[in-house]
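Assemble and predict.
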Amino acid sequence: MQKYNDTTYAILGILTTECRSGYEIKQFIDNSLNHFWKISYGQVYPTLKKLEQEELATIQAASREGKPDRKEYFLTEKGKAVLKDWLEQPLKQLPVERNEVLLKLFFGRHQTTEQTLHLLEDYKQKLEKLYQTYEGIEEGIEEGIASHNHNQSDAKYWLFTLDYGKKVTEAAIAWCDATIKEI
Amino acid sequence: MQKYNDTTYAILGILTTECRSGYEIKQFIDNSLNHFWKISYGQVYPTLKKLEQEELATIQAASREGKPDRKEYFLTEKGKAVLKDWLEQPLKQLPVERNEVLLKLFFGRHQTTEQTLHLLEDYKQKLEKLYQTYEGIEEGIEEGIASHNHNQSDAKYWLFTLDYGKKVTEAAIAWCDATIKEI
DNA sequence: GTTCGCATGTAAAGAGTTACATGATTGT
DNA sequence: ACAATCATGTAACTCTTTACATGCGAAC
């Protein structure tokens, strides 16, 4: 089976929800996958175009009263098969996550102690803000369940991914505290 | 002051250690920064070339008995100033770290429970291996201190970055365990 | 002589961001 | 008129990986 990139699989997966247009997909990623995935319109539209060319999805033009026309995409059987196949594939090697803070800290000898402390405090603050973002997304998902806006069995998995973000961010914040004390 | 990319700053920083050649820089990154930074020869050599063109470093050809010739790079005052300036700059926004596991888990509804469990167990195993890699790097740094192979005050910061990797990986492993139980 | 580690490099392809361009509809 | 939101798209640029090409010196 032909290989696609993860961005393609992400969009393929989102098309199993009620998201249908490029605009909506981008919104969805910004609101619900933002803790571990992001995407720009510069990727969304070309990828959708490719999806149709490869017959993984079909397009339907939709005029909805009160809003501009849009293109709605629907997975084909082939599209569903490609998604299913990807889900079954073993994980690739864990990617190295580049971290600007650690890179600067690594060269901490060339900074003053104040600068290093400031770096860590700034990082900690950003992490705390991130944590709050996660809580916000979590609430959004829970509201979505309550108002039946999205599939209940999807929500379960969505909450798992959020928990990951929270746990890992907590650990990073704790490391900041410990390192600030040790410097 | 002109801006460069983080890869350039990483190399600039490494040139403050005893690493002098492109080959050595690549080795160093693979051995000591591998938990939060990586680089390919396709970046190393062109970046070094640019460093010289921009007068951030000078080249010296070096013949060492028993080994092929190589080019040794030395930071200029301008190079040191650029590095220092970057260290002082405030952090950019935290990047979104794409995570293939979370992406697959997000679409867990389209998998069997067995598949999801397998995904998480595979991830956990990879994280444990990663943790061991960190311990290996840590030992390497400690040996480097003992044998005076590298600057003592560098080592302090290097160990901080490793601790980060360990703490965050631990949290991820704990999340795997908790999620496996909950599924 | 051939394999391994040391050493330097480039070209092409792929991935992703940014900035731009366009236009509909609704509310103020 | 105008701003805001919804909506689609492209071109240029940057960054990175991969694959290839080359060659020295040592050890077996």
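Chain B has two domains: 6-88, 100-182.
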